[in-house]
From TrEMBL:
Stated name of the protein: High-affinity zinc uptake system protein ZnuA
Region Disordered, residue ranges: 147-238
Alphabetized UniProt keyword annotations: Ion transport, Signal, Transport, Zinc, Zinc transport
Keyword Ion transport on entry: yes
Species whose genome carries this gene: Aliiroseovarius halocynthiae
Cross-referenced Gene3D superfamilies: Nitrogenase molybdenum iron protein domain
MF (Gene Ontology): metal ion binding
GO terms under biological process: zinc ion transport
InterPro entries: Bact_metal-bind_prot9 (IPR050492), ZnuA-like (IPR006127)
Amino acid sequence: MVMTVKRTGKIRHRLTPCLCNIITFANAITSHYPEQDPMTLTRTTMALCLSPTLLMAEAPKVVTDFAPIHSLTAQVMDGVGEPELLLPQGADPHGFQMRPSQMQSLSDADLLVWVGPAMSPWLERAIEAASLDHSIALLSAPGTVLREGHDHDHDHGSQDAHGHDDHADHDHKDHAKDDRADHDHEHGHDEKDAHADHDHEDKDTHADDKDHDHEKHEDHADHDHDKHEDHDEDGKDHDAHAEHVERVDPHAWLSPKNAQIWLEAIAEELSELDPENAERYHENAHEAQEKIAALDSRIQARLEPIHEKGFVLFHDAFGYFSDHYDLNNLGSIREGDSAPPSAAQLAAISARIEGGEVSCIFSEPAQGDAQVLELAKSAGAGTGVLDPSGSSQDVGPMLYENLMWSTADTIATCLEGK
């Protein structure tokens, strides 16, 4: 028998196993010491088992969307618990069909940590269906550097997100406190201005938008708006949010600055759910931020000698990485995560190749190999494979560091030979 006490949301306190055997224990003692009162023994055993020192608290059940976010969350939870990974390695985070067991895991969670609907729109619907009490969409964390996505003119540039403290959409609590944006533990380099040779700089974007499509409309009772007008306004809000989600480049974890901000955001959320371990969460976040700062310096040194050499990507997933490290990213063969390359896009890339600007062309695991090899052959360019989600890395706390370093090393190795 296990007794549970509801603390916050679905978080449970599990009592020690001695409660399961109180009567058996008391009977055994009585058989050896018949002079003792059985009720006195039972009360004494109950008091010991209910003592705060023997009350064992379960860690929050935390679910993360995919491997890079799992890695960051695992670092914050070190010594307290382990987050669960929702998507298996290699699964497409942009479109995924959950199994019933995965949906149940989401329903049982105390907290979901995910990138946001710009990365996984299907997960937004699953959150609503699971009646999840707490989730944090990291793209909305204040201070997050956002880039505009592929479906608008690319005028690259970065701007800090201005998140809202109150994310009430769908009754999900996507906390993101303003003071997280300027946390004292940020040791990464400031985002550099986009490289002068870049033709496709992103326009400034903001993370003001709420995390969910069906945002409650502001009360207009004082303005004589009828129900039909309110409905129209709700529709406009819905469309505006959907458009913003489509515009945001969701691959924001590939900026070390964002990763540092997100570590603090995760620690804040966990501390609110599990105040008993708040100090540990923040200590872990600070330690992880220090590691990312050291990693950032190593990557800067690795990429500095080749940062002016031009390269082309299979798809536009490494804009944050290129912007942060001032790389000469000349564009992508495929602009969207699922859209095939357009004739205009291929023509633009071909023109750069013919102009001798392209030193390397990078594909992704199981994607773009044939096109990349064909273009590289015509250009005399080198090739490599870049993996934005770390699908070939071992899942765990070290995945983020391994992902970032392997990305830098792959780019540098290819460009050094050209």
